[in-house]
Amino acid sequence: MRPGPNDRGLPDPSAFIPWTATVERAVSYVQGFSCVDPNRVGLLGLSLGGFVGTSVAANDSRIRSVVTLSGGMPDPVAANLRHMPPTLIVHGDQDQDVPVMEAYKLHNNMASKGLWHDLEILPCEGHLPYQTYKEAVAKKVLSFFDRTL
Predict the structure, then answer these.
(1) What number of other Cβ atoms are within 10 A of residue 136's Cβ?
(2) Rounded to 5 degrees, what angle do the CA atoms 117, 131, 42 make?
(3) Residue 92: beta bridge partners?
(4) Kind of pairing between the strands at 63-69 and 41-46
(5) Which residues in the chain show pLDDT less than 50?
(6) How far apart are CA 54 and CA 44, in angstroms?
(7) pLDDT per residue over 80-100, tens digit each?
(8) How high is the pLDDT of residue 42?
(9) Where are the beta strands (DSSP E) in the chain?
(10) Which residues contact 140 (CB under 8 A, 6 or more apart)?
């Protein structure tokens, strides 16, 4: 149940089941590579992928850190949030596709539970791809993964 091109709402939460299962299988697959430290797996999700990434990270202890760009966390996952690895939340304050309120909701939920995260709101930026802060965001994401993995 994927949203249509003009649908700005999140899909039915049941649609996340196959997506999160696919990410969980991908983590298992990547952990099997000889060149990968299976204890240093992070996720990066963009837009809807950010919602999927945070959903997986909240329920899979193998994930050591997560970045969501112009994403958030589905309300049913947020309502039951108990665990979350270090999380970087980046969002444009002028995003018309995924309202910046989604970033603030995730931030507030994690802060209220004392969960480690960093919130970066980009002034005058819309949805991906970021225009003004492209290099700064790339550096921040790489630095974040260097610190947390």
Answers:
(1) 13
(2) 35
(3) 122
(4) parallel
(5) 1-5
(6) 9
(7) 999 999 999 999 999 999 999
(8) 97
(9) 41-46, 63-69, 87-92, 117-122
(10) 88, 90, 120
SS3 55: helix
Q: What are phi and psi of 118, to 5 degrees?
A: -135, 130
Q: Which residue has the tokens 């939920």?
A: 109
Taking the C-alpha atoms of residue 146 and residue 33, their distance in angstroms, rounded to an integer, is 20
Cα separation, 89 vs 28, in Å, equals 24
* Closest C-alpha to 98, from 121, 81, 114: 121
**Of the candidates 141, 145, 89, the residue with the CA atom closest to the CA atom of residue 115:** 89
Q: Which residue has the tokens 């969002």?
A: 91
Positive or negative: CA dihedral 149, 52, 55, 123: positive
Q: Residue 68 forms beta bridges with which residues?
A: 45, 89
**In whole angstroms, how far apart are CA 138 and each of 25, 69, 125?**
26, 11, 15
